[in-house]
Task: inverse folding
């Protein structure tokens, strides 16, 4: 059983909609990640939060807005997305340095933008 | 520069065959970590193994085994007596030494898609 959960599993949205992806981890980790993955490609890092502060932003367009309300929760707010944003969005968590950094992933949200 | 190469894009085997997935990495760091992840069709990335650069001992976990050789910069993964449930995309990854705050980034290979046929 995964200890990183993500909701919803599937999401279909129009380009004018606002939606949010949610991630929760129950492993006591203090780093959380958002990845975007297109079919037949490896995951692409989007954001990293460490101790609830944004640590890495990989030049992601502002239509993606991350939020880390507490050490267990991570949200990704979506607004005015484009069809090319359709992908699998994965959340992961780990311990930040200098502790072990193995990232554990959730099941992902499959997003379709129409 | 840091890089992970998985030369095998797709592999197809018949159940009960042994199969080896290759991973070659490049890094100038003396301390680094290597990972294997499995991604079944459901999409979840499942962590399989983490190995640090100072530990060249091979690892076996059930039907899975890993061969880490620093001399050839390889970290290969073998599945013995493959099963249909092993069908998935397998990613090899290297932890980057580029720091940003308290985090480093994973450098991913392109993945190997394994199909195990009955």
Result:
């Amino acid at each position: 059983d995964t200890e990183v959960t993500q909701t919803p599993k599937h999401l279909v949205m129009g380009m004018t909609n606002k939606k949010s992806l949610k991630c929760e981890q129950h492993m006591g980790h203090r780093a959380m990640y958002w990845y975007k993955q297109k079919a037949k490609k490896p995951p692409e890092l989007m954001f990293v939060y460490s101790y609830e502060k944004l640590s890495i932003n990989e030049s992601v367009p502002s239509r993606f807005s991350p939020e880390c309300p507490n050490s267990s929760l991570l949200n990704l707010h979506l607004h005015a997305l484009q069809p090319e944003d359709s992908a699998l969005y994965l959340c992961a968590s780990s311990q930040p340095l200098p502790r072990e950094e193995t990232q554990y992933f959730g099941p992902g949200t499959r997003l379709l933008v129409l | 520069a840091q890089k992970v190469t998985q030369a095998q894009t797709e592999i197809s085997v018949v159940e009960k065959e042994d199969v080896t997935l290759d991973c070659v990495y490049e890094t100038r760091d003396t301390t680094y970590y290597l990972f294997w992840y499995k991604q079944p069709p459901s999409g979840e990335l499942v962590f399989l193994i983490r190995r640090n650069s100072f530990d060249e001992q091979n690892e076996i976990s059930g039907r899975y085994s890993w061969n880490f050789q620093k001399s050839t910069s390889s970290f290969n993964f073998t599945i013995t007596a493959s099963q249909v449930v092993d069908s998935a995309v397998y990613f090899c990854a290297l932890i980057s030494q580029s720091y940003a705050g308290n985090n480093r980034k994973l450098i991913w290979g392109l993945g190997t898609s394994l199909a195990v046929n009955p």
Q: What stands out?
A: Chain A has no helices and eleven strands. Chain A has a mean pLDDT of 93. Chain A touches chain B through 28 residues (CB under 8 Å). The longest strand of chain A covers residues 18-25.
